Amino acid sequence: MATGACFATREDVRLLQTQVEAAQAQAAQADSQRHAQLDRVIEQLGVVNDSLGRIGNQLTKFQGDAEGSLYSMGQQLIQIQELTGQSQRRLQELRAGLEAQRAAVPPVSVAPPAESGAVAASGGGAGSGLVVGSASTPSSATGGGPAGTTTRTSAGAIGTTVTPGPNQLYEMALDQLRRGSTAAARTALLDLLRQYPNADVAPDAQFYVAETYAKERDTTAADSGYQLVAQRYPTSDRAAQALFKHALVLQAQHKVQAGRAALEEVVRKYPRSDEAVLARDRLRTLR
After folding, report:
1. How far is residue 172's CA from residue 184's CA, in Å, rounded to a whole number?
2. Is residue 280 part of a domain?
C-alpha cells in the first residue's frame, strides 16, 4: 500500500510537471504572439504618425498658399479699385466739364419788337416804308448780377445766370476734400444733396459726407453717414462700401456680434462686390 501510494504520487508529480511545461509553452507562445502583435501595432502607429506628419505639412503649406493667395487677391482688388476709381474720376470730370460748358453758353435773349420812331412814305408802294429810330440797341450793358438772379437790359432782354450742376458741385467738393478742407467739402456735398436729391452722384455725395467726418475723427457722425448711404441708396455701388465701413467701425468699438452681423449682411446683400470678398476674409479670422 505504501509503495502504491508512493508510485501514485510520483505519477501525479510527473503529470503536474507535464501540465506545467505545457502551460509554460502555451504562455511562451502567447507571449510571442502578443509581442508580434505589439510590433505590428507599433509599426502601424509609426505609419499613422508619418501620415499625420505629411498631412500636417500639407495643411501648413495649404494655409501658407491660401494666405498668399488671399494677400495677392487683396492686392489685385486694390489695383482694380484704383483703376475703377480713376475711370470713374475721369468720367466725372468729363460730366462736370459738360455742365460747365452748358453754363458758359450765354442764355438766349428775346428782345421786344422795335419801336418805330418815324416812317417816311415815298410813293405809297409796297415796301416803301423805312423804319428809322429803332430802339433795338440797348442803351445800357447788362450788369453782372449775382448767381441765380435775373438781369434786364433797357430794351427788355432777359439773362439768367446758371447755377452749378450736380457734377460740378461734386467735383468742387472732392477738390476741397483733397486739399484737406473737410468743412468746405461737406458744405458743397450737402448743397448737392439739397438741390439735386435724385442726381446719380447723390450716393457718392452722401458717402463722402461721411468721409469728411471720418477725416475729422468724428466716428459717430461718420458711422451715421455710412448707414444713411446703405439705407437711402441700397442699390448703389457705394452701399456695399458704406456697409463694410460701418462693420469696421463696430469692430473698432469691440462690438463683435454687431460687426459680424454687418459683415454677413455685406456678403448676403452684395455677394459679387469687392467688399464681400473682404468681408468673407474678415469673417474667417473674426473671433
Report:
1. 9
2. yes
